[in-house]
Amino acid sequence: MTVQSPVHTAPAAAGGGSRPKKSKSWLATVPLLAFVVLVFGVPLVIILGGTFTREGTLSAANVTDSLQGAYLTALLGSVKLSALVAVVGALLGTFLAQAVVTSRFRLLREAVLTASGVLSNFGGIPLAFAWIATLGNSGVVTSALGLDSAGWSLYNFWGLTLVYLYFSIPLMVVVVVPALDGLRPQWREAAQNNGANTWQYWRHVGIPVLTPTLLGGVVLLFGGAFAAYATAAAMVGGTVPLVTLQIANALSGNVLIGHENVALALSLDMIVVAGLVMAVYLPLQRRSARWLR
Amino acid sequence: MNGAKVELRGLRRNFSGTTALDGLDLTIEPGELIALLGPSGCGKTTALRCVAGFEQPDEGAVLIDGADITRVPANRRDAGMVFQSYSLFPNLSIRDNVAFGLRVRKVAAAKRHARAQELLELIGLPQIGERYPHQLSGGQQQRVALARALALEPRVLLLDEPLSALDAKVRVTLREEIRRLQLSLGITTIFVTHDQEEALSMADRVAVLRAGRLEQVADPATLYDRPTTAFVAEFVGTMNRIPGKLSGRTVTVLGQDLPVEGDVPATSDVEVLVRPETVIVTPDPSSEAMILVSSFRGSTSRLRVQLGDLEMLADVPGHDTVRLAPGTRVRVELVERPVLVSASSDVAAAVPVSEHDVV
Amino acid sequence: MAALTPAGPMAPVTPPAIAAGPGGRAGRPRRIRVWRGVVLLVAAVYFLVPLIASFTFTVKDASKGFTLDAYGQILSAEGFGKSLLLSLGLGVATIVVVLLLTLPAMLAVRLSVPKLKPVLEILCTLPLVVPPITFVAGITTILQWGPDHLADTPFFQTIIAAQNPDFPVVLVLAYVILALPFVYRALDAGLGALDARTLVEAARNLGASWPHLLFRVIVPNLRSALASASFLTLALVLGEFTIASLLHYQTFPVWIYTISGSQAQVSVAVSVFSLLITWLLLLVLSSAGARQRSGS
């Protein structure tokens, strides 16, 4: 039996399993569930098991190692970078979305929304190279403006922030535009009618109504920046401490003998952070869906 | 709480080419409930929004108790407004919705909660303060919106088709309730509606608007019985148009000579406007006219009568229905009273709103 | 790694909910208009400059001034065709597997076992929480650990076969997991709009058999959702770097990275080129979505 076998049984289950007797149609879900458990679940179990094993014995040493020294710096660096990108990206994305939503030009709106859909999917190696060609040491803009003599470098924390925002801001636009559209003009007018000025409307109604969406956007942006590896690897290599780079480093064998499982511990740290952040997101999304219906 | 006098003076408003208000003049007396009635696009909502401050008229002025408030921003006007639907703030509880205006004015929490509770009792929903808008029915939401509009004790209440999104039964109870509240508070109220029945049953006076101008303003009975223009006559209630010959101030219609009321057109070929209840129908086997359809409505029956190539509507007492069955030959006469006439070409000046309940 | 997002390319076709009423916001203060202009201008500069600069970078030449040589060199560069074909093959395989897994399961859940829906939803959303790099850490460990412990069992052969560098099945497995959240969302939206239950009952009522029903009734009606799921998966596979590079497979993005050391201009040219392809894919996808919307 191989991990592939569920694939082959899938059509059979759909065709035969759910024939007249409806009670058997759940069989059609078995291949998918089995696949996920096997291909996704087993590596997770391995991560969990490996994290708490050192040289064949049960130990918390990997976790301890992963939470000190260079590893801790990398983990904190990733959290710091992702948090900055998430907050700044969410703010700028919301401003951009508001500028577009309140615009009377339909074409502008359509253009920005389409571009945002595309750019929010722009990541990885090509993104890194595009920015290297622009603001790298011999980049077009760098040499045109003479930035290199002014001490400019793209290959640091701030450079990464700038590059990550390139896909984060459009993602925020995509997330927040439906919510901005959902703010009913009656709410603003009702607030005015009750004596509220613009600021009071935003403070008591507009921002609270948008908050779940905004926080949800922050979470998504955080997750995207936190998990990003390719862009950072292509741009900064090891000069900026990031947990994804440390994991890749450890996986490539750059660890002390016997400490190979530190990579797994770091992975577990990442999953815990990402999981906690995602756990905030889901209930928020549900609430905003109810308000903006 | 007592009402203010509201004056609209020569209001004019253009929206990129279309004229919403074309020199509207209207004075609303203190404590009065006035309904702005008209087909969609007649400018009634724009007029209301000018009073609320959400629209700036291009020309003209809005006065409250003699003070010109045309340039006063919406959030500093003394008018509470109820919107068509979904205007409650979804993130605030019902109590906080009602107390919103007080919160903005920095009234202490205990005091504004007490006031909100008072208002919720006033609208008959004292239990729902802790709930959220999405947990309420449409009718309840509009009651709360009313409470919110009254929270700051405004001297003018503005209602922008507040019942149009509700189902028929709720609509009727709620309009009675609004009227009761309005009378007990004595607040000047402007009520925008396109539903003539709503306007006639609630308002002290009804202002009929057409293309941004005031067509007629009068109490409901006068408006119905003595419409000054053909437009009003046809927009309010149901109207028959019967060809007639005009001579001087008398018109000959269906063989009867009737005095003419209101404007007289230049031509002698006119159409006479006749309400269904002023058409008298009696069985007469020798007559040409015949009943096509009869729909029983309890106290009355509405008949559709064919007379040559003319069809007309007549309302007769319910107990006459048996002898006025479809197919019966009848004689048609009109009640002897002054009638309105209009030039024959002036068709489609208005669409009778109650067209749908004509069988 | 392409930062594929759940709301991604679907969003542009969402119809705008409320357009500002005629003149409803007429008397807008000039201050706001200025503010909006500044925001849009800054955004335009930020988003357009890297694109323009990348292109400029690939066509400038110290001696000739302007040249398209870099683009010409792409085709002749060693490994280009091979890596692109590998990525495309992986993409197609991933699409086939992920659709064969999800479609029957989601149909069954919608039609007769709605109780399983939350389970499916959670399982299909979980991969979003697990960064690809941690996933690859787990996989690497298995691949290293396996040969040591399973050398005498059939598992060993399987694991070796799955790592065949000409067509690494292990990547397909991993990509199926990565694609699950997006495919699930796309199909769920499609099935929701379809009212599958009524359709199936109507077809069964007319005597259609299950296979007939699946391929003649469901699939054609789901065409747009299936296309959307496929495009998203393809874009994901074509851009995925993390897993492929750490498992040492020469997929297209890994190849771009590899040649960047020796031929910087060509690598940027390929980036621009692959960007255009991705954009084209996504534009086709969003316009297909828009067409379906207007059709229904």
UniProtKB/TrEMBL annotation, chain A:
Which coarse location class applies to the principal site listed for this UniProt protein? membrane
Q: Where is the signal peptide?
A: none
What domain of life? Bacteria
Q: Does the keyword Magnesium apply?
A: no
**Location of the region described as Disordered in the Swiss-Prot/TrEMBL record:** 1-22
**What would be one Pfam family of this protein?**
BPD_transp_1
What the entry lists under InterPro entries is as follows: MetI-like, MetI-like_sf
Any Gene Ontology biological process: transmembrane transport
Q: Which GO terms describe its cellular component?
A: plasma membrane
Please name the PROSITE patterns in this protein's record.
Answer: ABC_TM1 (PS50928)
Q: Which of UniProt's keywords are assigned here? A: Cell membrane, Membrane, Transmembrane, Transmembrane helix, Transport
- What membrane topology does this protein have? Multi-pass membrane protein
Cellular compartment(s): Cell membrane
| Membrane-spanning intervals of the chain | 26-50, 70-100, 112-135, 155-180, 213-242, 262-284
Coiled-coil zones = none
Residue ranges occupied by any ABC transmembrane type-1 domain in the UniProt entry: 75-281
Family as reported in the entry's similarity comment? Belongs to the binding-protein-dependent transport system permease family. CysTW subfamily.
User: What protein does this entry describe?
Assistant: ABC transporter permease
UniProtKB/TrEMBL annotation, chain B:
Q: Broadest EC class?
A: translocase
Q: Tell me where in this chain the ABC transporter domain is found.
A: 6-236
A single GO CC term for this protein reads: ATP-binding cassette (ABC) transporter complex
| A GO term for molecular function | ATP hydrolysis activity
Superkingdom of this protein's organism: Bacteria
PANTHER family associated with the record: SPERMIDINE/PUTRESCINE IMPORT ATP-BINDING PROTEIN POTA, SPERMIDINE_PUTRESCINE IMPORT ATP-BINDING PROTEIN POTA
- Protein name per Swiss-Prot or TrEMBL: ABC-type quaternary amine transporter
From TrEMBL, chain C:
Q: Does the keyword Cell inner membrane apply?
A: yes
> Where is it localised?
Cell inner membrane; Cell membrane
Mainly localized where?
A: membrane
Q: Name one Pfam family in it.
A: BPD_transp_1
Q: Name the UniProt key words of this record, in alphabetical order.
A: Cell inner membrane, Cell membrane, Membrane, Transmembrane, Transmembrane helix, Transport
Q: Which residues cross the membrane?
A: 38-59, 84-107, 119-147, 167-187, 225-248, 268-290
- Which InterPro entries did the record assign? MetI-like, MetI-like_sf
Q: What superkingdom does the record give? A: Bacteria
Which family is this sequence assigned to? Belongs to the binding-protein-dependent transport system permease family.
The name under which this protein is listed is ABC transporter permease
Tell me what organism the protein belongs to.
Answer: Planotetraspora mira
